[in-house]
Every structure is written in C-alpha cells, then in structure tokens.
Amino acid sequence: MKRTMIVLSLFVALALVACAAPTAAPTAVPPTTAPAQPTAAPAQPTTAPAQPTAAPAQPTAAAATKPAATATPVPVIPPGRVVVEFWHGLGKPLGDILEGVAADFNKSQDKYYVNAIYKGSYPDTMNAAIAAYRAGKAPNIVQMFEVGTATMMAAKGAIKPVYELAKETGVTIDPKTYIPAVRGYYSEGGNMISMPLNSSTTIMYYNKDVFKKAGLDANKPPKTWAELRTMAKQIMDTKSAACAFSSAWLTWAQFENFSAIHNVPLATKANGMQGMDAELKFNSDLHVRHMQLFVDMQKEGTFKYGGRDSAAEPLFTSGECAIMHTSSGFRANVTLNAKFDWGVGMLPYYDDVAGAPKNSIIGGASLWVMNSPGRTADQYKAVAEFFKYISQPDVDAQWHQKTGYVPISLGGFDRTKASGFYDKNPGADIPYLQLTRTEPTENSMGLRLGDMPAIRIVIYEEMEKAFQGQQTAKQALDNAVKRGNELLRAFEKTYK
C-alpha cells in the first residue's frame, strides 16, 4: 500500500508540473520533402514565473500551431493478435508517421498488434496515463518527455525497466546499438530504463545573407564564443541586422548543454544520475564567466534577450537576429518561414577550457513500459518485440529522415549517410555529429535531477534580474543554485 501511494504521489507531482506546460516545439524535416509541422523539442519551463513545467513550449508567431485532437478511429485488429496500447503525444503529421511505424510493425508479423493512440500533448498524455494507472488500466507503453525521467524512474511500481523487460521476455534489446548520449540519458548503471524514441539537441542557426552583408564568410559560422562576439560586433557595426545574436531555451542551451560541452558539472553525482542527493554546481567560475558574457553583450547591444523557452525563435525566422541558438528541431520552422539563405553549426565553446568541446546532451522523449493489474506475459513480449523492431537501423533511419529527429542508433546514422540524404540536406547531420563527437563523461551523459522543470524556472528568474541590472552575474547564479538546491532537497525528502 505504501509503495502504491508513493507511486501515485510521484505521478501527481509530475502531473502538476505537466499541467502548467504548453505543447511541443518544432522538429526538423528534410528540405527535399514538404516540411513537416512542429514536434517536440526539449522539455522546458513555461513563461509563467511562478509555476514549473516539464514540457516544451508551443512555437510562437511563425511556427505552426498545436494540432487539434481528433477522434481516433477504431482500429480493425486481426483476430488472434495480442494487443497492446501505446499512448503518445505527437500531433499531426509526426503522430501519423509514428502510427505508421506501429502499423508497419503490425504488418511485419502476425502475432502482436500495437494500437498507437494520440492522447494530446505530452501533459495531456501524462494526465491520461495517471488516470488510467489509478483505475488499474494503464497503457502498456506511454511516451514521456525527457525531464520526467527522474520522476518516472522513482515510480518503481508503475514502470517496468526496459532491461528487465528484455530479460523476462528473452527478446534482445541491445543498448549498445544506440548512440552514447542517448542511451546514457535513459540508463542507470548501464541498464536501459526506458526506450529511446525522439531526440534532439541544441545547435546554432545563422543568417548567411546577413553574414555576407557584414563582410563575414557565410560558410564559416563562429566556432568559439570569442569568434561569436567578434562577428556579432561586426554585424552591428555594419548595421547588417537589427540584432546580432539571441538564444532560445536559455536554461537548456546556455546552462545544461554549456556544462556538458565544457565538461563541468551542472550538479554533483553525475548531474543526479548517481543519486537523489545531488547538489547544483552551475555557479562555478566558468558558469559565472558565461553569464557575465551575456550580460556584457546585452549592454553593448550584440545580444538580445528574447524571452523564455522558444519565445526568441521568431527573432531569427523574421530576419531580425542573425544568429540563434535553439533546438535542432527548429529546422522545420526555419524551412517553412525563413525568407533568406541560412546555415547551421555546432554550439560555440571557450577554446581556453581544457578538453572542450565534449558532446552535447539531448532533449525529446522516450517510451516507458507501464505495469497494471492483469498484464500477461504475452503482452510484455509484444512490447519487447515492438521495441526490438524500432531499434532496427532501417526503421530508425526512416524515422530520422521523415521527422527530422536525430538518428538515435549508430546504424540509423550510417544508413542515412550511405543513402546520400545528408548531401541533399546540408547540415541535417550537425545535431548527430555534435551529440557523438566524444564519448560522454559524467558531465555530458545528461541530467536526472528531481523537479528539474522548477529549477529551470528559478534560473530564468535570477538570470532576468541580472539582465535588468538588479544583481551581478555571480549573484544571479549563487541565488539560482541556492534556490534550486532547496527544490532538490524537497524532492529527495519526498521520494527517497
């Protein structure tokens, strides 16, 4: 009974976070096809300063709007199949592509049937899963945003880890087939807990037309922060654009990915992966230096703060800002709406930091196996066979090429490269190359911090005070770490 109450309280906590969250930000599509509508970017907090969130913000302005939920047609299930339900949070057309993957699995064999059902946004899907779990009717599989990983892992009775699923069913699901940055995020002690599906990372977009106008090489985006600042000054000095540089998803791009790339801890305990008693450490000298850079660039007019989450993205597609740091999933929006020549590059780094740059970290979602009364061995076997199917390089390659998410398996990337896809779609491989340029360290495997969405809100609040001149860069990060650690201790006390 006690375990059940803990599990329910975990879900309630995650639901409260999710309820405040808007829907998914856009993903990329191959330029050789009709651009797809936006999908999930890394889960981030909302713009409301007082409430935490755990899902990504809906793209603003030029980005496509949230897909309307439609009645799910009753599937025609061949008799004799073992049926499992798979609840997901991807709207059209990405949801259609995902449901097509399930349909292809159903056609590939005659024993199992995966019924993929769109349940609305990530928060909607989570809320539906919570209600179903309480009623003893949880789906067999649920798609969950990446910042819910720590909470889902703590819900021991509600979920069945993927490595246990594979062991119990005898179905081979080899985590080594996945790129290290992905498998590390969703693993514990080398064991895969959830099944990777849709992943993205933070990259740089730049306006080639502005670069040419400013006398810069349009084929050489800045590699270091020193180069970026110099180029930004040249853009402003030549009046080549109204704004030189902005960044969306600031907490994810300029703190979480920044820490990973420079191999410094965002928090102790391998960013929480080695225990709930982790403590935040993003007020180091290097972090303060980076925060001070943004404050200084704002004062000199080379950086424009465009708001929280995805709010800054229209500054790029409109042509106002020449350089933008945001999700690799922003590619769809740029493809649809930018009326200028543009390119992409990896995130810049400080070249005087030893060992930099390391790999970046992911955002997106993974698939979780849920327990519920009455589950049969055949149903778990069906789930395992479906996971094995989507792990195939050809399936992963097609998913990547159709949706714009990064290929999450080594074979998926190899298949895509061999097909000539990257030659036809320049820059589409940048996110993968950035994620895989080094083996992950303790600081670049990812995050597993309790109440991370609320911590991101705290960072926004303190950072904005620094931008407004109310406190120094060091005071901002010291305050954010202090407040964030209080949130971590509350989470640990509740769920340890």
List keywords for this structure.
496 residues, alpha/beta, D-Maltodextrin-Binding Protein, domain 2, 2 domains, six-stranded mixed beta sheet, four-stranded mixed beta sheet, 12 strands, globular
Please provide a brief summary of the model.
The protein is 43% helix and 12% strand.
List the helices and strands and how they pair.
Elements: H1 2-19, E1 82-88, H2 94-108, E2 112-118, H3 122-134, E3 141-145, H4 149-154, E4 159-160, H5 162-169, H6 180-185, E5 187-188, E6 191-192, E7 195-200, E8 202-207, H7 208-213, H8 225-237, E9 243-247, H9 250-261, H10 268-271, H11 285-300, H12 314-317, E10 321-327, H13 331-337, E11 342-345, E12 363-370, H14 377-390, H15 393-403, H16 410-418, H17 421-424, H18 430-436, H19 452-467, H20 473-495
Parallel strand pairs: 1-2, 1-3, 9-10
Antiparallel strand pairs: 3-12, 4-12, 5-6, 7-12, 8-10, 8-11
Helix pairs in contact: 1-3, 2-15, 5-14, 15-16, 19-20
